[in-house]
Every structure is written in C-alpha cells, then in structure tokens.
Amino acid sequence: MPTQPLVSIDAVPVILHEGSLHLVLGVREYDPFAGRAALPGVLLNAHERLAEAVERALLSKAGVAAGAILASVEAGVFDDFERDERGPTLSIARLVILDPNTELSDERVEMVPLDGLPDLPFDHRAIVARAATVLLDSLWINLGTTRALLGDTFDTAELIARMKELSAAAGLPVPETANIGRALGSNKLLERVAPAAPAGGRGRPPAVWEWV
Amino acid sequence: MPTQPLVSIDAVPVILHEGSLHLVLGVREYDPFAGRAALPGVLLNAHERLAEAVERALLSKAGVAAGAILASVEAGVFDDFERDERGPTLSIARLVILDPNTELSDERVEMVPLDGLPDLPFDHRAIVARAATVLLDSLWINLGTTRALLGDTFDTAELIARMKELSAAAGLPVPETANIGRALGSNKLLERVAPAAPAGGRGRPPAVWEWV
DNA sequence: GCAAAAGTGTTAGGATTACACCCATGA
DNA sequence: TCATGGGTGTAATCCTAACACTTTTGC
Predict the structure, then answer these.
(1) Which CATH architecture has domain B6-152?
(2) Which nucleotide is closest to B179, CA to C1'?
C-alpha cells in the first residue's frame, strides 16, 4: 500500500478572446489522453504553495506566464473515480482569470469557447462546470474576481455576455437580463461614463461603466 | 528538491453537545504540538478518497466511528506558512456534522464550544472560521447539511442558537433574529408541529418545526 | 404577578419582476 | 426607414427591518 498521496493542481484558465470567454487548454504530451486538450495541471510538489503550482501548471502545460494571471480562486476538490491507476486520484481546481492581452503563442495551447465546450478528458468537464458556478456566485461579492473578469471599464452587454457564457459552462439556465442595466446604475461602486469608441455593433450602444 | 506532496485532510467535526455546538478535537500524540488538542487530520494516502481520509482522521485521532458522520462538506484548501519543515504544507478541510447521540469516550477526545474556542495549533483557528462560514452560507441552500445540523425536528430557539454559535466561530457579527420564526413559517419545506416535551426553560416555549 | 423568552401585528422602505414602450445605431 | 440591441417608465409584488405589543411559560 503506497503512502504518498497523488494530488494534482488543475487550473481552469479563462480568457476573454474575440469578444467571448474561452477556456485555455493544453494539449497533453503524454498518456493518458496524449494529444488531447485538457486543463493545465501538475502534480503538487512537497512544500509547494498552491499559487506556485498553478503558475507552474500554466507555464509548463500551456506556456502561459505568471504575469498573465489577474485573479485565482479556489474552485473545489475533486475525487476522480475514472482515472487510471498511475494517475492522480485527487484534483484541487483553481479558477484563473487571464489578462485578455496575453499572447497565447505556445503551440500546445488550445482555446475553446465557454459556451460551446467540447468533451474533455478525465472529469475536467465537471471541474469547469464547478469553476463557472463559483465565478458566477462570486460576482459582485468577490470584487477581485469580478473586476478581473470585466476589466476596469465594461458595458452592460459585456456583463450579460459573460453571465450567459458562464451559465452555459455551468450547465445553468440562461439568466434573466431585463433589469441588469438598472442594477448597475444603482451600484455605488460603479459610475456611468461616456463610451470611448464611437460605437461597435448594430443596435443601440450599451451603457459603459467604470469602477470608482 | 522532493517531488512528493505533503497534503493533510483535516476534519472540522461539529457536534451538538449539552445544547450547544461543540468542536471535536483530538489530543495530539506526537510533535509538533504533542499534548495539545487539534483538528483531527491525517496525511492523505495515495488513491485514497477524500471521504475515506476523513473517516480515518476521525477514527485514528479522536476515536469517532464513521457511522457518526451525518454530513460532510468541503471547507476549503489551506496553505500554511507557519508549519515546521517536516509537516504538511497543504491542508484540505472538510466540515463534518456528527450525530449528537455519538458516544465520545475516547480518552484523546476533547470538546470545546464553538462560541468560546481556545487557541488552536497550526492555522486550525482560521480553518474552523472558514468551515463555520461555509456552513452558515449553506443554510437553507444545502438541505443535507441544514438537516444534519438541525435534526429532523427542531425549534426556533435551537436554530437561532446554532446561527449565533456559528457566527461566533466564523468571526461574524451576531445575526438578526427578530423575524426568523416568521421566515420558518413561510418555508414550504417545514411544518409547524406540537412540542413533544411539555416545556424546557423559562419563557414562552419556541415553535417546533418538522421537515415535510 | 413578575420576569423571561418568544411569537405576532403592523408598517415603511426597498428590491424584484414583468411588460410595454422608447431611443440610438448601422445598413 | 427598418431591424436590432438596449435603455427607460411604471406598477404590482414581495421581501426586509423595525419596533411595539401580546402571549406563554417558570418562579
């Protein structure tokens, strides 16, 4: 009976890419699931801090530098029945919000939209769902993650898009959005500002908000 | 550089004892902190399930049998700066609600009231605070833990007492309690029933509730 | 009867929801 | 000028917080 634990730290890296939230995956080099895109994860080293392991996972599995991390929060601990004998049996998941300006040029990196996730190896699909739920629940409660997700200035349409994408990834019904602009208007942490760009899409341009 | 992780599973076992919530601690047999009461925790074994490790911790550190566990939920993952070189650097905490009828006869076991916690070794004080916060937040949301905490029938005074004890352990201000009985009356999962015992304390006896 | 403990009445204020309708933009 | 995407007006509803007051108990 072995006495050393097998624990992996799995990042759930989320990035705003071409106007929608994407999951950043790394193509696995080794079995199991060699060649398939999966959450960047590493086996935890002794005396290694959680944040260090997350950075190591992002860098070694997807070529993402630590500086790209805007926020990182706990997303749950997962037992995985399905894993092979050799692999980790326990996964500590951290939701990571990446800077949208990050260059993701590593050849192993793969981005998939949060509202159209493919099949993922291991129990990574369930982990992503939990992470999305955690982020949704922490909106307007954890201001760090909220600001990291939305940026310093954002408009109502962007917020609604993020909520829909996260709800899709979480497997939750599409949220009500009718009165969200009003709610933002009465949020004392926000201030309505004039749009920077002239306009973007088709209809009436949404209200733009800035953190005070 | 060692490559094996040191991960401990720490139970935060809570039990209703003499009318108030108590934390179940185990007196440590070995250094560090030999002789002091601490959360029952074990180093995670390879391929061991979380639930198994929690049961092992309770049995081996406090003599509590697995059958006493009414509910068990995740309470967070903790980095601990302060630990000695030899010890775990990462702790996975699980809140455990124990059956109030459990005989705690093990000589190593020690019970301390949640609303009057002593100093605890390691970062156990912070872990207990987080666990209490998690349980408070999951009241009426996670019905499993809620029922485990309150029992099949309970009265309004008991609920208020549990909320106060948990708030104290969490380091939160004492909750408002003026309209709680009303809220229970409009909860469709509960039904008001006649008190079983004639009466207990001094003033007017509280309303008794039963899960439908 | 008195004090303690808890329930109940009542009210004001605010939040939520829903729905209809109006406004700004690009084509 | 039309379709589109969003904002705004408005009212019904519900929830919340207070605070005073009443009820039920033990002593």
Answers:
(1) Alpha-Beta Complex (3.90)
(2) D17
SS3 content of chain B, % helix, strand, coil (to 5): 30, 30, 40
Residue B108 vs residues A117, B11, B15, B56, B59: alpha-carbon distances, Å: 50, 15, 16, 15, 11
Share above pLDDT 70 across residues of chain A, in percent, rounded to a whole number: 94
Whether the predicted pLDDT of B118 surpasses 90: yes
Is the pLDDT confidence value at B136 over 70?
yes
Nearest-10 Cα torsion for B177, B182, B184, B185? 170
Distance CA B44, CA B25 (A): 19
Is residue B44's pLDDT more than 80? yes
- Say whether residue A44 is in contact with chain B using an 8 A CB cutoff: yes
pLDDT digit string, tens, across residues A107-156: 999 999 999 999 999 999 999 999 999 999 999 999 999 999 999 999 99
Domain range summary for chain A, segments of one domain joined by +: 6-152
Of A71, A8, A16, A72, nearest to A40 by C-alpha is A8
Nucleic strand C within 7 A of Cβ A183 = yes
Give the integer Cα–Cα distance in Å for A73 and A161.
21
Nearest CB to B5; choose among A2, A7, A76: A7
* Phi, psi for residue A71 in degrees, rounded to 5: -155, 155
Query: A45 — contact with chain B (CB < 8 Å)?
Result: yes
Rounded Cα distance between B133 and B88, Å, is 24
B-interface mutation test, from A44, A83, A137, most B Cβ less than 10 A away:
A44
Q: Which chain B residue is nearest to residue A89, measuring alpha carbons?
A: B47
User: Which of B 59-88 lie inside 8 A of A, CB atoms?
Assistant: 74, 76-77, 79, 85
Q: What is the pTM of this model?
A: 0.93
